[in-house]
Amino acid sequence: MSGKVVQNVIIAQFYQQNRQLGMQYQRDCCAPYTRTLPPFHGGKLAWTSFSSMQMRSLPKYQSGFVNRGTFNCSAASSATAIPSLDKVDFLKLQNGSDIRGVAVSGVEGEPVNLTEPVTEAIAAAFAAWLLDKKKVDASRKLRVSIGHDSRISAQQLQDAVSRGIASGGLDVVQYGLASTPAMFNSTLTEDEAFLCPADGAIMITASHLPYNRNGFKFFTNAGGLGKSDIKDILERAANIYSDFLAKGYSVKNASESFKKVDYMTVYASDLVKAVRKAAGNIEKPLEGFHIVVDAGNGAGGFFAAKVLEPLGAVTSGSQFLEPDGMFPNHIPNPEDKAAMKAITEAVLSNKADLGIIFDTDVDRSAAVDSSGRELNRNRLIALMSAIVLEEHPGTTIVTDSVTSDGLTSFIEKKLGGKHHRFKRGYKNVIDEAIRLNSVGEESHLAIETSGHGALKENHWLDDGAYLMVKLLNKLASARASGRVDGSKVLTDLVDGLEEPATAVELRLKINQSHPDLKGRSFREYGEAVLQHLENSIASNTKLQKAHVNYEGVRVSGFGGWFLLRLSLHDPVLPLNIEASSHEDAVKLGLEVASAVKEFQALDTSALDKFVQPQ
């Protein structure tokens, strides 16, 4: 959590009391019941009639239909003074192919910029964008599904999104607590009983970021929206917000009935069917397996009761399944050391066959085998590559730029595939795999070290739950063939993966107020650093620049490699170093330090500390 928390004592105390007194994970429902939470309005508490994570009990998924409840938005209309914002302010909310901002006050230096009026304008802009894209007959109203993760600002923003969508003349379907992959799937499911397919979907989430943040991801049946689409929506939103300023903004009484659907049960049922189908239509193909889940108090708690248990697995020892937007146990992030330690300890203490961990909105995941070995980052990519290359021999595996040389050797020399190392950013990796297929190079897997992984067979959706389903399929097939050694079948698949003795990522920050920038943007300054490093490498016989590289400067030498690149969004140059020994890693670090020392606006303190003699 960045910044100093100065105003959140009351909410933290209330939330802890609420969690202890009112929250219980209902194993027969896709979402928990909680007591009413007070949303933030300028740092003060204000009660609403609908909880920020409350989901009314809904009929279970039975024979393909559900009774649909309705939610009537009945907020009182009142004029509200809103700050003046322009297009530049809105564009600052763009985070690649997502929108992210601060939704809750209380962290010093992080003023709220994702307010209800801003959110309503963004949703109305998406509605207008969708109408332009779909160009449907006027007789049919478009339909948008809305879901959210466990953040404490979720309900407040869901209400604002619903008003914005409805203001554009579109129907609104609220899913409540949901996962990002489920929201995309809602645009593909064909079942009118569940009001599917949706023409568009919005997921309210900020992934693993702190409790005060939130944001939006947008989908159509063609997939997630790209960077240009997000920019278009934000520019439209700025114009809509200008109308709010000119005409006065108020939270109007809404006559529309917003439907509420238990779609997560549909989504979970599809995952169960996928495992049963892969196992030869066995009802309980995971019977005899003990698998623990760590949802990190995000939206992934459903996986234990709704996926694993129907397949026959024992899930006792699973932890942090109940949604809690303060994330009191650990950051829901498969890359986080504390998170991986938590799931590893759960596996070992429960003598489980496998551990599964998700990020907040379940588009990323990782695993731990029965011995406590973590299957994340390069290991997860190696494991998924082994599974995919068994099914599609020789296919190309697309990854991000920070994957190891050992992974390349594993994919190409042991598995017989091709490793295409591309740029950071899950959308970049996915789009590159799609592009390769379009020009005749077969690719079935696009995956980042962060845990974002997308398969061609799953519509190129980065779905953490579906990645774990592929692992469950291997467990089930191994058991069916007579193997009784638990998750060893997974561990065996990554046997032979060369791993470095030292692997670090150091962040070299650019001081944007330093005079050395000389009027340049941080991006221009960062590009100058990279160009100077590249020039210095050219005359160094100890180092060799990568022949094929799509991001930053990647160099091999001293039994290892380094990559210096410019962050996608922040004034930072991340430096990744891997080597067969700490001493060799330091040698690589010294080469970088020597090359960039003249750039005074670059904070090299992390690098300087790393290369100091121990």
Q: Overall 3D geometry?
A: globular
Q: How would a crystallographer describe the biggest sheet?
A: 9 strands, mixed
Amount of beta strand: 15-25%
**Strand tally:** 28
State the helical fraction: 25-40%
Report the average pLDDT across residues. Answer: 88
**Termini gap:** 30 Å
**Rg on CA atoms, Å:** 25 Å
| Count of alpha and pi helical runs | 17
Helix/strand structural class: alpha+beta
Any low-confidence stretches, pLDDT <50, length ≥5? 1-68, 70-76
Enzyme class: isomerase
EC number: 5.4.2.2
Organism: Hibiscus trionum (Flower of an hour)
GO molecular function: metal ion binding; phosphoglucomutase activity; phosphomannomutase activity
Q: Please, could you describe this protein's structure?
A:
- Its EC number is 5.4.2.2.
- By secondary structure, the protein is an alpha+beta fold.
- The chain has 17 helices and 28 strands.
- Helix 11 (405-414) links the parallel strand 18 (396-399) and strand 19.
- Helix 7 packs parallel to helix 13.
- The longest helix has 21 residues, at 227-247.
- Residues 1-68 and 70-76 have low confidence and may be disordered.
Give a quick set of tags describing it.
six-stranded antiparallel sheet, globular, single chain, phosphoprotein, disordered N terminus, alpha+beta, nine-stranded mixed sheet, 17 helices, 28 strands, 614 residues, A-D-PHexomutase_C_sf
